[in-house]
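Input record, target 12 of the design panel.
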C-alpha cells in the first residue's frame, strides 16, 4: 500500500485545518449553552430572594425549594423559608456583605461541574481554543511553556474526585427536597400529600442530576475500576456495568441536567413571584 509520510508535529496556524465537517458547531454550542447557564445562575445566586414557595405560613402551596439554594444554611435577610438549617441571617453578618444562601453552597456543585472530565474537554475547546477542535490549529499566544493540566493552575482540576463526594451528598439533599415538594400546608395546619407540576420538576431534577453524577468517570472507577479481575467481584462488576451505561451517556446527562437545574430554579422563582402558578395534579 502506498504511504505518504506526514511530518510531525503538524504545525498549523490558528483555526487552520483540513477538516471539512462542521467542527466548529459543538464548541459554538458549548460556548453559548454554558455561557448562558453561567450568566443566569450567577444572576439567580445574587438575587437572595424568590428561592422557594410553600413556606411555613403559605397555606395550600407545595413546598418547592430552588436547587441553586439547597441546602439553605441561613435564610436571606428578612426571609423565612422553613428550609434554613441554622435559622435567619446571623446578627454578626456584616451589613455591607450580600447574604445569599446560594453563594454559600454553589461552589460545591459548580466545582464538580467545572472539573468534570467531559466539560473540561468541551470548554477548553469552546472558551480558549485548546485546541478549537481536534486537528484544528491552536492560537500561538500560550507559548511553549504552556503544559495544560500538567502545571499550575490547571493541575488543580485533579481535585474532581473530591467534588464528586460532595456532589453525591447534594443528590441526597435534593432528593429530600423533592420528597418535601410532595406536601402542602392545609387549612388545618397539617401537611398533606399533593403532586404538583413543581413536584415533578424537582423530582426530574434529581433524576437528571443523579444520572449525571452517577455517570462520573471517578465514580465508575470507585465502583469497579479498582479491581484487576472484574469477574472475581460479581457485585462490583454489576455496579460497574450500570455506571458504565450512564458513563457512555455522560455528555447527554451533562447537558440535560444543566438545562433542567436552571429551569427548576426559574420555575420556583416565577411561581414565587406570582408570574406562574404551580398547578396541583393530585391530592
Ligand atoms: S467526569 Fe463528569 S462528573 Fe465526573
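The sequence produced for target 12 reads:
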Amino acid at each position: 500500500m502506498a504511504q505518504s509520510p506526514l511530518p510531525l508535529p503538524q504545525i498549523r496556524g490558528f483555526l487552520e485545518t483540513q477538516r471539512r465537517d462542521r467542527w466548529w458547531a459543538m464548541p459554538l454550542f458549548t460556548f453559548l449553552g454554558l455561557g448562558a447557564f453561567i450568566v443566569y445562575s450567577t444572576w439567580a445566586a445574587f438575587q437572595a430572594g424568590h428561592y422557594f414557595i410553600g413556606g411555613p405560613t403559605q397555606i395550600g402551596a407545595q413546598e418547592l425549594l430552588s436547587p441553586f439554594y439547597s441546602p439553605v444554611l441561613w435564610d436571606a435577610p428578612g426571609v423565612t423559608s422553613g428550609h434554613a438549617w441554622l435559622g435567619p441571617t446571623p446578627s454578626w453578618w456584616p451589613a455591607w456583605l450580600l447574604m445569599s444562601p446560594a453563594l454559600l453552597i454553589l461552589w460545591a456543585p459548580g466545582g464538580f461541574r467545572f472539573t468534570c472530565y467531559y466539560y473540561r474537554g468541551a470548554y477548553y475547546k469552546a472558551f480558549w481554543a485548546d485546541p478549537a477542535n481536534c486537528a484544528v490549529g491552536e492560537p500561538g499566544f500560550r507559548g511553549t511553556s504552556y503544559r495544560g493540566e500538567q502545571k499550575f493552575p490547571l493541575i488543580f482540576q485533579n481535585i474532581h474526585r473530591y467534588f464528586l463526594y460532595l456532589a453525591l451528598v447534594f443528590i441526597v439533599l435534593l432528593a429530600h427536597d423533592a420528597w418535601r415538594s410532595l406536601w402542602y400546608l392545609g387549612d388545618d395546619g397539617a401537611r398533606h400529600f399533593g403532586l404538583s407540576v413543581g413536584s415533578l420538576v424537582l423530582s426530574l431534577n434529581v433524576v437528571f442530576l443523579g444520572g449525571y453524577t452517577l455517570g462520573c468517570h471517578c465514580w465508575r472507577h470507585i465502583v469497579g475500576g479498582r479491581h484487576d479481575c472484574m469477574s472475581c467481584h460479581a457485585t462490583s462488576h454489576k455496579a460497574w456495568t450500570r455506571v458504565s451505561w450512564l458513563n457512555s451517556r455522560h455528555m447527554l446527562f451533562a447537558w440535560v441536567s444543566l438545562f433542567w437545574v436552571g429551569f427548576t430554579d426559574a420555575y420556583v422563582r416565577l411561581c414565587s413571584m406570582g408570574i406562574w402558578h404551580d398547578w396541583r395534579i393530585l391530592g
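Residues 116-118, 160, 164, 216-218, 250 surround FE2/S2 (inorganic) cluster (CB under 6 Å).
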